[in-house]
Amino acid sequence: MPPERVAVGTGPLRPEDVVRVARDGCGVRLTAEALAEIARSRSVVDALAGDDRPHYGVSTGFGALATLHIPVGQRGWLQRSLVRSHAAGSGPEVEREVVRALMLLRLSTLATGRTGVRPETAQAYAAVLDAGLAPVVHEFGSLGCSGDLAPLASVALALTGEGRVRDGAGALRPAAEALREHGIEPVELAEKEGLALVNGTDGMLGMLVLALADLRRLLTTADVAAAMSVEALLGTDAVFAADLQALRPHPGQAASAANLRMLLSGSGVVASHRGPGCTRVQDAYSLRCAPQVHGAARDTLAHAAAVAGRELAAAIDNPVITLDDRVESNGNFHGAPVGYVLDFLAIAAADVAGMSERRTDRFLDVARSNGLPPFLADAPGVDSGHMIAQYTAAGIVSELKRLAVPASVDTIPSSAMQEDHVSMGWAAARKLRRAIDGLTRVLAIEILTAARALDLRAPLRPARATAAVRDAVRAAGVDGPGPDRHLAPEIEAVVDLVADGALLRATDLPLS
Question: Domain of life of the organism in this record (predicted)?
């Protein structure tokens, strides 16, 4: 049975509904209230359609051409020309989930009635999304100001029956053919509609919402990885005590420390060296300070989620139809608020991954691993164990540091200096997606390595939660310690477990 449709109305979308539509293929429907408001505000645009006075986006050109008057008879053609010219993206196709997210968010803005499109245009847009059609959108083309112009124009082009789409099965089709198959009539754009379809931060916001869902899972997974490493490296859990953490009352730190306490509860490995006979005073920073780093990343995530929530409640267009039916130019399309937090999250992802890689490295060095064999090898010298797995993690971490360089501090003038400051928010979102993939892989390598180290600590028994993660890794076809074998498939198996949340489900940890 197909999932229930998400209702798109005059209020803000919920982040979880964006994920459902983008990733789970959930359909959409416009509410009656939205259609009524769309029709009401369209009457404002219709009243201006024959006006001789200049109204941006209705009777003028765009950008630096805004001073040029467009005769009444050419104003519909103006909108089609806008979409065709702005669908100027280049490079690889972006992911289907990104296209569906940006379409849903643009539809949400149309549904507010602040853009002045006709009800039939909004309904056609919803029908394309509901039919599972994903217009081809390219990697490059958005500067993150005046909206994600080229990506949104590629979607609008398909709505008019031009360009190409991917159908629900992923096949590349001419847009006109795919629309006809689903009984969707191509839209003949009327005054202002082309502009309304391309002028929003929907691409970067869609990627932010998806990234928030991913990072909630990954930051909790980072706590799992850290707990396994603390345990298998014979570290102490005493530093995670609630009263110690409360001396520095950051909420993310408290949540991370609570996770570590739960994960290590009942560990026979930790208990084996607890007491007056233990000569270790304190652990290395990558073990001891995990709640502080993971917690700071959590607090960054919370800030980004707050920004996303405000943006989901926004109605972004230029010009916009105000609540009292004025048609006003504005600068709300500037992507700075979204671009900043996208960059901030890339910094956090790089730092969490960097700490994870340092814990992985400690397992492999006999001077720091507290009795484990060199590189966790079965027969050191003949076997190399996880030596090169750490190289892989280190290479990814180095890439994550490059991806942490903020895109939002860059700007490049466009449109003959009319658009002389831009956000680069789309670029920030694209690199964050790569950073999330990298963090997933680095955590997977740490968990793979820690699981092997826990086995090597036998007959000491790990905690219930960490043992469950180790067992989930083994159930995925990754064997325990032994002679060297092809390691890349084992890494990928754990990457998949991290990415789909299977390891978290094994622990019963909530996403915090």
Answer: Bacteria
Supply 68's token pair. 């040029």
What's the 3-state SS for 416-465?
CCCECCCCCHHHHHHHHHHHHHHHHHHHHHHHHHHHHHHHHCCCCCCCHH
CATH superfamily for 207-267+282-308+338-507 is Fumarase/aspartase (Central domain) (1.20.200.10)
Catalytic residue among 56, 125, 285, 340: 56
Tokens of 33: 């209230």
Per the CB < 8 A criterion, the answer to whether 335 and 426 are in contact is yes
Q: How confident is the model at residue 1 (pLDDT cuts 50, 70, 90)?
A: very low
Helices (H), 87-148: 96-111, 119-130
Structure tokens at 124: 């056609």
Average pLDDT, the chain: 93
Among the residue ranges 57-71, 151-165, 467-481, the one predicted with the least confidence is 57-71
- CA-to-CA distance for 419 and 421, rounded, in angstroms? 6
pLDDT for 367-394, tens place per residue?
A: 999 999 999 999 999 999 999 999 999 9
**Whole-angstrom distance, CA of residue 416 vs CA of residue 157:** 24
Domain ranges for the chain, please list them. 6-200, 207-267+282-308+338-507
The string of DSSP letters for 250-272 reads -HHHHHHHHHHHHHHTT-HHHHH
The answer as to CATH 3.20.20.70 being correct for domain 6-200 is: no
Give the model's pLDDT for residue 4.
Answer: 83
pLDDT in tens, 20-30: 999 999 999 99
56 is annotated as an active-site residue: yes
Lowest mean pLDDT among 62-66, 241-245, 276-280, 290-294: 62-66
pTM above 0.85, yes or no: yes
Q: Cα torsion for 109, 110, 113, 119, to the nearest 10°?
A: -160
Residues 6+ positions from 439 with CB-CB distance below 8 Å? 218, 349, 350, 352, 353, 400
Q: Which helix (H) or strand (E) holds 37?
A: helix 32-48
